[in-house]
Amino acid sequence: MTDPEDQPRDPPRQSQHQELARDDRTGGSAAAARIQHQTQWVEQQLRIAFERGDFDDLPGAGKPIEGLGTEHDPDWWVKKLVEREQISVLPPALELRKEDVELAGRLDRMTAESEVREEVESFNARVRRARMQLLGGPPVITPERDVEGEVEAWRERRTARVEAQRAALEEARRDERAERRRRWFGRRG
Fold first, then answer.
1. Burial of residue 151, with CB atoms counted within 10 A of its CB: 0-12 exposed, 13-18 middle, 19 or more buried
2. I need a labelling partner for 40 at 20 to 30 A (CA). Which of 20, 147, 160, 179 fits?
């Protein structure tokens, strides 16, 4: 058998790591060399991107930078998020008032009576739920909507829109026919 002392020993791990971190050509640290040339590499990448036109037609080009020269607001990113995503941070009572004002417009975008009924019922459920909550803030004064009344109003508004569209289409057709006649009779003359 062989003696364990006769077998070659592995060199310590720390020295292996140090050898790998050194540049063979210069004997210096490879990380230091990368850092030294990093700015040149970044400048080269920017120059190539400019030549390709990657920075042409960016949003906000030619406009002043928003918020430059004003005091620093530490919550700027939250405010931008709320603005961009249109997040509402209103108390439930005020949120319901806002929804109440916008309800007719939302209903007008719907195409089926069942959708209208469902939306009004959902609105009424949110009003009832807000009245039962004992959260602080302004009181809930938003009234519930009559489902049948809202459906009837939606039908009337929809009928009026359809009639207006038909009238506009008929007017456009008459104008088109009159224009064709003018062109036709204009050729003969």
1. middle
2. 20
